[in-house]
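User: Please predict structures.

Assistant: First:
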Amino acid sequence: MRRLSAEARLLDVVDLHDSDRIVTFLSPQWGKKRGVAKGAKRKFSRFGGQLELLSKAVVGWFEKDHVELVRIESVELVEAPGELLSDLEGILIGSYMAEHLREFTQENEDSGLYCRLLESTLKAMADGVPRSLSLRYFETWVLRLAGIFASPDECAHCGNPISDEGGTLSGLGEGISCEDCVPRASGVLTVGAGCVAFLRQSATTPLSRLSLPSPRVLKEIERVCRRVRRGFLDHELRSYDVMKSTLQTPLRSGSR
């Protein structure tokens, strides 16, 4: 058994039995971990008030080889998630972002880039960057870091440049095709000029400096990310379905 400690973001907290909770957390050096916080549900637990979704905390834990769940010894709050979780839309967004990281990160793998992405996105939203833009940026970058995002520059079939006017995305989201290589299979998705421009710009431009696309383009970016994500996972994120069915209006386009 070894004892480890790291600064991490909490990605999930679920009840276990009558008094315990299972906590999923992500740290740059140790990747994703799941552990039992014994007694966390008790009234005077040492974990009281520390286990909020997306909180940043110093987590201490014990782990054994070949044992899936670690034993969480301590959680010392560094930073609460703040304003994001102060309303229903923010709670749904936070759950959606956290589920992305639970799905696309691995245990004991360097997750520094994922952690930096989460930190920069949370900061941008706290600084007033529109939630709608922040979420599209976050989605595209998670898929890029996972190595599965369709390139907006080269045709997935022939390797020729994708036109500034756009192309099409295959039914399973494997890649964007140029106008000369449009797949004959049904279910192809149009990737328009505005969407291509965003995908290219977001690859090199910080979120805080990105221009807000039109609602139509934001919707198209969302559809592209959804197609790529579903094609890779073979299922949709539960939090996405909950968010779409719960929210009756589009995500906020302006700062709060």
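Second:
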Amino acid sequence: MSISAKDVKKLRDLTGAGMMDCKKALVETDGDVDAAVEYLQVKGMAKAKKKAGRTAAQGLVSVWTNADATAAALVEVNSETDFVARNEQFISFVDTVTTALGEAGVENIEAAESVKIDGKDLETVVQEQIATIGENIKVRRVHRFEANDGFVGTYIHHGSQVGVLVAVSGEKNDTTEEFARDIAMHVAAMKPAYLTPEDVSEEAAEKQAGIFHAQLIEEGKPEKIIPRIMEGKMKKWRNESSLLEQAFVKDTDLTVRQHQDQVGDVKLTGFVRFEVGEGIEKDEANLADEVAAALKG
């Protein structure tokens, strides 16, 4: 039967599916628009399930804060390609998810599963986006800070590839707000792993000590002086890994701790830094295999 362009456009407006998919759906349902909507939903969700297994290492980080900045949430949502990450629909989806998780008080990704968005659970909303956008999408992680005796500073780096939350105790005013934002920008640039040297885990310290010891052996250092050298190296490494002991990026003559003391009446109590795709093992595609698969359809 003949399918009109008007019906194709109507179906596209209703579903967001591609023009050719809409035309095929109308052909399969004898021009019944309602049936075509259901057809696309069924087909789209089936495809979405298949796409959900593909690696998603691109995407965006986004932040939500409440009115007085006493609570904030940092969220990472992944896509397969940078092209989709720049898509207005994906950006809007990330904003919607971030707001929903922030307002729901979600503290981790496990708790996010029960959050409702427009009456649907998060998994359903994600699957619908996969079906519409055509790539695997994953709400990967969320971190929340609540600072009852202070506030939370935030920073999203250009391109929304890096996001930071900084929890601060103390009164919120122009000076302390500037301090929190400066520290959040510092965290984005310098990537500290810990707040203080005392926070360094034993596991991490043992691993780093093993690396230093192997390096010193390789350099031919006498075994009897290695412990003394190791002591200095480990102290330096702990300081460089810790936010408060790092050189402050806006004034490298000061550590972050010294800058905090200069500002006064404010204390850093925690931070978190998300960078899109960090820690995800990327798929190494074989070009020949991809071309062969494309030729096979």
